Amino acid sequence: MRCGAGIDARMVDELAINIDPIQAGGRLTADAMKAVIAYGDGYSVCDNCRKPNRLDYITKPPIAEFHKDLASWLNMDSARVVPGARRGFQAVAHTYVKKGDPVLLTSLSHYTEFLAIEEAGGTACEIPAGDRHIVTADAAAATIEEVKKQHGRAPALAFIDHVDYQYGNVHDVQVIAQVAHQYDIPVLYNGAYTVGIMPVDGKNLGVDFVVGSGHKSMAAPAPSGVLAATAERAKEVFRTTAITGDKTGRQFGIKEPEMMGCTLMGVTLVGMMASFPHVQERVKHFDRELENAGIVAGALRSITGTTILSEFPRKHTLTRVDTTASFDTVAQTHKKRGFFLSTALNEKGVTGIIPGATRVWKYNTYGMTNAQAQYVVQVFVDIAQENGLKTG
Ligand SMILES: *Cc1c(COP(=O)(O)O)cnc(C)c1O
Predict the structure, then answer these.
(1) How many angstroms separate the CA atoms of 23 and 343, rounded?
(2) Are residues 256 and 320 in the same domain?
(3) Model pTM?
(4) What is the extent of the structural domain holding 158?
(5) Domains in the chain: how many in total?
């Protein structure tokens, strides 16, 4: 089967258990796949757009209702859909960061947070993670004091990743936000790995913004995401346009400059909406996901020489592992070198690990059944034993 234009059909998740760290939470639901086919045409959600002509006012399909539901699900006051978490960071950075302003983030922050700061002309000030790769409120307080000394003012904004992309560790956003607020610093909660995966309550966390990624964690097509704000901050980041054309005198009503008017206009939004009821349900069962994460990490640990670099027991399904003293010793003499591991995994129906990686790598068990997790355990143990590694 071919899609034309030299494009092969993609069959990855149909044929194997996919443990790719960034793909597990974004896999579409069957309902999202149907929505994608129905709303593939450009501007397809605009069929029933009426005054005041803005995406989040459209009632058919129920886009307006979806926006309200998204905000209340995150326990925030307003929400907008955005083309990826990164576009949420960009809107917030552009609103609060002026040229030369220091901005707080962490030593485990995602590159898109750095780029959002760069584009706004800010300076990136990292809170260093501790030796267990956890960012603490004490380190946040110390970094803010350091920034004040260096820049003569507190950071203009703070980006805090609840679960970081490197270790999948959980950081205490609630207490870090309290510290930041003592200095009047608005806090953006980066939920790229949490919104759509586990329950997120913005008011309880005490944050100003919640950002999520549709294609990473909400079973939605790319590029999609959500930016939610408190009522106070919504007035700032979702301010409406004030510009007037100098010849025509035209004005543009309630369009929001940070959103460039309307954002997701077809597949992305309708896919996200179709998955939403499933996503709302699945976050309630994160405990089952942690169980699977625990048994897979436990099995890897049982292979002599392997260490789990993420916090253990696992609090998230994204896990970083060091197999330098186990699988990498096999790679030294194996005829396929480092590719033996990904090849062996693929042969046994497990995919998603970087081909050639045998030292430090990441995987994500999100979305597996318990039987699939047991199977993955058996696969790792079998590959270890077939290659003369000790287990148990
Ligand atoms: C993946 C990721 C992002 C980027 O998300 P997009 O939706 O692709 O823009 C940002 N932050 C973290 C921590 C991530 O893991």
Answers:
(1) 19
(2) no
(3) 0.97
(4) 50-265
(5) 2
Residue at 280: amino acid letter: Q
Specify the amino acid at residue 359. Answer: R
Edge-to-edge strand order for the sheet containing 209-213?
78-82, 225-229, 209-213, 187-190, 158-161, 102-106, 123-127
How far apart CA 382 and CA 276 sit, in angstroms, is 38
Q: Find the CATH number of the domain harbouring 195.
A: 3.40.640.10
Cis peptide before 223 (omega within 30 of 0): yes
Return the ligand 1 atom nearest residue 22 CA.
Answer: 1
236 lies in the same domain as 374: no
Q: How far is the CA of 109 from the centre of ligand 1 (A)?
A: 10
Cα 340–chain centre separation: 30
Distance CA 40, CA 42 (A): 7
pLDDT tens by residue, 336-372:
999 999 999 999 999 999 999 999 999 999 999 999 9
| Rounded distance from Cα 110 to ligand 1 centre (Å) | 7
In a domain, 345, yes or no: yes
**Residue 276, domain member (yes or no):** no
* Residue range 290-341, pLDDT digits in tens: 999 999 999 999 999 999 999 999 999 999 999 999 999 999 999 999 999 9
Q: Is residue 352 lining ligand 1, measured as CB closer than 6 Å?
A: no
CATH number at residue 296: 3.90.1150.10
For 365-377, the DSSP string reads: -TT--HHHHHHHH
Contact assessment for residue 222 and residue 214, using Cβ atoms and an 8 Å cutoff: yes
Residues sharing a CB contact under 8 Å with residue 30, sequence separation 6 or more, in sequence order: none
Helices (H), the chain: 30-38, 63-73, 85-96, 111-120, 137-151, 173-182, 202-205, 214-217, 231-237, 267-282, 286-301, 327-331, 339-347, 370-386
Question: Exposure of 126 by Cβ count < 10 A (0-12 exposed, 13-18 middle, 19+ buried)?
Answer: middle
**Ligand 1 center–CA 386 separation, angstroms:** 37
Q: How far apart are CA 384 and CA 327, in angstroms?
A: 7
Q: Is the residue at 62 inside a domain?
A: yes
Domain check: are 260 and 289 in the same one? no
pLDDT (tens digit, 9 = 90+) per residue, 161-194?
A: 999 999 999 999 999 999 999 999 999 999 999 9
